[in-house]
Amino acid sequence: MAFNHLPAGVHDALAPLSVTPVTHSVPMAKNHRSDRPSTDTASRPDPGTVLDRLASGPSRASRITHTEHLPPRAGRHAVWPDRIRPEVIAAVQAAGIEHPWAHQALAAEHALDGDSVIVATGTASGKSLAYLTPVLTALLDGSEAPNGRGATALYLAPTKALAADQRRSVKELSQPLGNAVRPAVYDGDTPFEEREWVRQYANYVLTNPDMLHRGILPSHPRWSSFLRALKYVVIDEVHTYRGVFGSHVAQVLRRLRRLCARYGSSPVFLLASATAAEPSVAARRLTGLPVVEIADDASPRGELVFALWEPPLTELHGEKGAPVRRTATAETADLLTDLTLQGVRSVAFVRSRRGAELIAVIAQERLAEIDRSLARRVAAYRGGYLPEERRALERALHSGELLGLAATTALELGIDVSGLDAVVIAGYPGTRASLWQQAGRAGRSGQGALAILVARDDPLDTFLVHHPEALFDQPVESTVLDPDNPYVLAPHLCAAASEIPLTEEDLELFGPAAADLLPQLEAAKLLRRRTTAWHWTRRERAADLTDIRGEGGSPVQIVEAGTGRLLGTVDAGSAHTTVHEGAVHLHQGRTYLVKHLDLEDSVALVEEANPPYSTVARDTTSISVLETDIEVPWGDGRLCYGSVEVTNQVVSFLRRRVITGEVLGESKLDLPPRTLRTRAVWWTVTEDQLDAARISPEILGGALHAAEHASIGMLPLFATCDRWDIGGVSIPLHPDTLLPTVFVYDGHPGGAGFAERAFHTARAWLIATRQAIASCECEAGCPSCIQSPKCGNGNEPLHKRGAVRLLTELLRGAPEG
């Protein structure tokens, strides 16, 4: 029997490189409007006092496992380069910014010199102004050109919300410049009647990589005047372009550069990122160009109080009688309620759309019991909402009408939510870079801020709240992406050929793997070579060959059965696990049950209901080794890295009580299997090692299974991944290795770089895994160490002590370094 742990998104594609991180300074920074504060910081609540109130009472105080105090930091001013137009400097000063921070002035200087540059400084350090001043100067210069359109600029954001927010900021800042700056959003929400105006007249177009890939580049003749005059390309929130998404975006940018060159332009790339290790390396891989790095953050920051919070154990028992800890969802809802009652402006970041909805609903109900008007001051914010719903929530945030918000990472990225006092993070977000990005949403007006990380009942979260040094004394991760992944590169070569036929001279732009892929694309009758160029041969659009988010297929529409009303969408790869028949779906505080999932037409029909439970899908997985790339001895055992094929099928779902997580029942499902070719790391042990570890045949399956679960839970500490991006299988006798084997694999076609990173950090990764299991106080295993919420085998069998002994013996043979 194989024991498995499959990621949501088994359909995705992705493949990065492993990069050694460098030491970071904690990236919390104050907004650059220091000379004229936008709020009265004296009236803001003291973060320490707020935390004391939250922790009042004996049961609450014991939940704080660690408090980190990050002191305030003074800023360092500079002067703007003399080539910045005086009208632009005057507009910036009118917005309340008398002098730039040193990193802003340096970035502007490089941009004016024609150097592509990445500004990788803390949240609210004024990165926007660093790139806006040279951009506005170029647009102002262009508006005075005697003939033609003048200069243009393109802004790329990973989300529609961020692009809309940036347009508001640009419009406000450039108002004194009159008609010289014409910003416009061009995305899937832009009405068709407005799109022609944007193409013809806007000189600062704000969009996202998806629209660039599907809309702008395939229609480049209609954008020819814009591309011909393109001076700057701004890429915001660069740290989000990692894995499969980042690899796709890298190829989209190469297609953009190729078209610009055909129209006679060579734009300068201006990139902005949260603090990251080796940002220039990631920026070069993303753009294909040399990029100057500016990472010395000269902005000031207010005090940050950062608390690690562990929910208490309950009297309930979960699978196999394991103790159940109170859920991070319920705990975060309580904290958001209490913060709202204190009048503290807060946002709670939640990993899932469902979690955001649940926290908002619970907080609203508890606030309504005290004062019905308070319930309206809390809401949920997540992807999948309709455009008008997102815009209304963003307006309510800016106006202060909302006091508390439960949000997914859609709000993590750069949207200016000034005046927040506290951030609650429901579960470790997967990387230290993301943790600091979320924590930095509070304190953006210069005041002190409070951040709380609430641990989930999960091996990594439990490890972190009891090992704060892993968060506060370690560097942020490097951004991992691989544009040469053939699953990523091939469809972009087709898209490029459909835009303008591909020539030999173009291949260098797309990387060393391009030449080897062309014969395969010819054999598949996707491209045809005529004389000196390759041409796209199909009638359909080449850009539709791939979804750059790696979501595989058309989004599934969620439709209310009785009315036909569209509630939202879910990506195709998540449909099997989130909108299967019988699944509970939450939307805008209302609960729905899925009555039917039609995979052929990509529609899930739902009806409003009020069940006292949530649902969790269960699946089964098998794995086969296709090719072993690297194999190293670990004593008698082996550590390997290579290509595998994974077959997965969702077979049932559990019903769990919402607050406690108690399992109420299980229902079978009949969904088709899915196959994935990807990359994996795996390790084997021999009979002698099993004897040395006192692992009998009766407990071998449980020991391997427990080690697999815990190692998946700990990998995000070593790779820039989310545990839901990776999967695992353990088997006492695997047919390909003929030995007891544990696999951990990337949940994306072609690989995502996570397994490769695991291979190169295997010793430290598995030491931390062993420590996480051994230090857990439970007797036989629990969700904090070896149980998994999505185990396809119902967490059966598991053997905690066997896993510790097995990992101890394996690590005995691990090479140093």
Automatic annotation (TrEMBL):
<dbReference type="InterPro" id="IPR027417">
    <property type="entry name" value="P-loop_NTPase"/>
</dbReference>
<protein>
    <submittedName>
        <fullName>DEAD/DEAH box helicase</fullName>
    </submittedName>
</protein>
<dbReference type="InterPro" id="IPR055227">
    <property type="entry name" value="HRQ1_WHD"/>
</dbReference>
<dbReference type="InterPro" id="IPR018973">
    <property type="entry name" value="MZB"/>
</dbReference>
<dbReference type="Pfam" id="PF00271">
    <property type="entry name" value="Helicase_C"/>
</dbReference>
<dbReference type="Pfam" id="PF09369">
    <property type="entry name" value="MZB"/>
</dbReference>
<keyword id="KW-0347">Helicase</keyword>
<dbReference type="InterPro" id="IPR001650">
    <property type="entry name" value="Helicase_C-like"/>
</dbReference>
<feature type="domain" description="Helicase ATP-binding">
    <location>
        <begin position="108"/>
        <end position="294"/>
    </location>
</feature>
<dbReference type="Pfam" id="PF22982">
    <property type="entry name" value="WHD_HRQ1"/>
</dbReference>
<dbReference type="InterPro" id="IPR022307">
    <property type="entry name" value="Helicase_put_actinobac"/>
</dbReference>
<feature type="domain" description="Helicase C-terminal">
    <location>
        <begin position="331"/>
        <end position="487"/>
    </location>
</feature>
<keyword id="KW-0378">Hydrolase</keyword>
<dbReference type="InterPro" id="IPR011545">
    <property type="entry name" value="DEAD/DEAH_box_helicase_dom"/>
</dbReference>
<dbReference type="GO" id="GO:0004386">
    <property type="term" value="F:helicase activity"/>
</dbReference>
<feature type="region of interest" description="Disordered">
    <location>
        <begin position="27"/>
        <end position="75"/>
    </location>
</feature>
<keyword id="KW-0067">ATP-binding</keyword>
<dbReference type="Pfam" id="PF00270">
    <property type="entry name" value="DEAD"/>
</dbReference>
<keyword id="KW-0547">Nucleotide-binding</keyword>
<dbReference type="InterPro" id="IPR014001">
    <property type="entry name" value="Helicase_ATP-bd"/>
</dbReference>
